[in-house]
């Protein structure tokens, strides 16, 4: 039976409390702790039940409580203070980053398939989403003119619970967007703004939910509207649910629909930032719009779009990069290719590493790389891995010249730091430390935090974690209908004084949660040591179709139940941002065991670091650059070796892990002095604040994106669109001309005047004759490419030095001259190459054109 009519019944908020809605409808509460606490204190249990969702919370507060609060002057004063704090935050326009659009609108549009902003907006699955959420928060704090686009998933990602025997089950609760801090974007006559796009010849309609992330607007697309057939309504049902059909539909919606949505709302960002390849169709849609609205050729529009796009790749795991078979692409993009004036085969080549291979699938990462002139990985190591992974897209390039750079991720400090630690930092580092967390000067003051204060604060956080874990375990037992005995055990697990190791992450196989299980005897003896015991808190979800991951969870859970382990290893179900917070704030050691180099960055270790937990990790992702070989900031499992034999690697690295635990970590933690303080341990906690605090935070990350990527891309956009797109047309005409002449460029007579043996500080003078085939000297860049050689005569490192035109030789031949000096003694060699050159080309490598002598 269904009702004829449905209503939303909401409480009547007394007039004096109406500004509560302003606080509730801005996710600022997710990082301004005072706002969050204000809500929580009204009714702590209801707040917990609301999953920290202030809209649901206010809608469920009993009317009597509201009436009561409306008369409470202390409460009203505090409300006014917080409303003012929020207003002041929102209206502050100061910024240190010169990025302004003449139309005052947003400059950058950020696209991501998931966002981890708050517990109250469960549309994230893991690191990628959390990073996107942190990016928006830091962009808000830094006043970057940015809007964001994503999808509004009806069921979000799944909730995890375990059966009696530890097997993961999934539950998909419905998000009720009306009860969340979201508002529907409305059109002229106040009815929802509906936007359509063509999906396989049918009309797909969607609406837009707006979330306010401080000063940033996040727009979430939702296909669950009355006009759509059921299969279209389902497009935004689940995050990463469904098959390839579903995936391509979601990505069409995100990319193409996202651009359409921005335009429909009158927003015209100049730069787009694709966070992972899921949104790469956005580039195509921008090309299409420029072609149709401004009569640009495909090539000119492509130049313009690519020069003003930024792409961040996140995964070195091949399966993590979406690939669609050609026939699937055909179902969705045949007409679209036509619209772009491209033969379908030429269109498909945009997503292929080898454009001539008709069997190759269409890869979203390749498309994004081709539609963006600024590409980056998310740690130094990941940048390097990505260059090698995608080198086929730039076939003639030495791998180090593949145009993928790196910008290491960072975390939004205010979101992840425990208020208690933040308080200490304010006290000893100055009240403005959180406004400029990316300056070294401030962080060196962390060394002045008194040992005892830091340690007592940290111990309190560990106690809070223990308390939280017990509560959660009790709830888990009750939900399973467990016996009284089990409840009692849950109440007594863990010990607030014991060295606590946290391990929480997705149970993807490369993360190797099973390493702990590789030597059970050693593990048990560490747990069982009555003088210096350790304990583990574990959490994490396996992908619903990943049975291997589920098996590992099961083995860990069974271990938790064994009598020797009982109470010393616990598994908390349903890893989310709340569990992550308690863990990173309360653990002593943060353990991470990815198989190098498959962890692109890993941000949970940064969250732990900022709270004073010490990292023990394989040298992968961010830790490969943050770790110091003297162990002054934490520990490395191995030295960054990569192995051909996975089994063997697991064995070796699990043994190293136990060695470090036994010989370094446990003794150091329990070496307490007269004041009952582990001084050497505390020294490391402070050393990592001083050394790493200024680097691994979202402000540094977003500022780096702004200066290295957004600002140059914006400048390009402005220059290329001036005078009715004159430069864009020029650049594409130049490129077309270059492409036709390029293959007939020649290099001959490369010579040097220098003897074959020379001293380190001597210069080698090189001349070469170049056939420039009708191009102008400024169209090309001729370089000496030089470096030390290995025993097989290959370059082991390289540097480049420009060569200058030094006279015409007739018949299109030009003499070029340049000098280079060896870096150090030993075998050294050079060659000569030609690259394209144009003042509007962000990176001479991006066109993929190169000539070698
Ligand atoms: C930070 C975070 C992640 C990502 O952490 P990794 O180190 O990349 O594993 C995943 N899930 C949640 C809930 C987080 O808070």
From TrEMBL:
Task: Describe the reaction catalysed, as an equation.
Answer: [(1->4)-alpha-D-glucosyl](n) + phosphate = [(1->4)-alpha-D-glucosyl](n-1) + alpha-D-glucose 1-phosphate
Q: Which InterPro entries match?
A: Agluc_phsphrylas, Glyco_trans_35, Glycogen/Maltodextrin_Phosph, Glycogen_phosphorylase_DUF3417
Per its UniProt record, what Gene3D superfamilies does this chain match?
Glycogen Phosphorylase B
- Residues with the modification N6-(pyridoxal phosphate)lysine, per the entry, are 607
The segment(s) forming the DUF3417 domain are 13-121
Superkingdom per UniProt: Bacteria
Gene Ontology MF annotations: glycogen phosphorylase activity; pyridoxal phosphate binding
GO biological process entries = carbohydrate metabolic process
Instruction: Kindly give the Pfam families that the UniProt entry links to this protein.
Output: DUF3417 (PF11897), Phosphorylase (PF00343)
Keywords annotated in UniProt: Allosteric enzyme, Pyridoxal phosphate
User: PANTHER family in the record, alphabetically?
Assistant: GLYCOGEN PHOSPHORYLASE
Q: Which family is annotated? A: Belongs to the glycogen phosphorylase family.
Could you tell me what this protein is called? Alpha-glucan phosphorylase
User: Native species of this protein?
Assistant: Desulfoplanes formicivorans
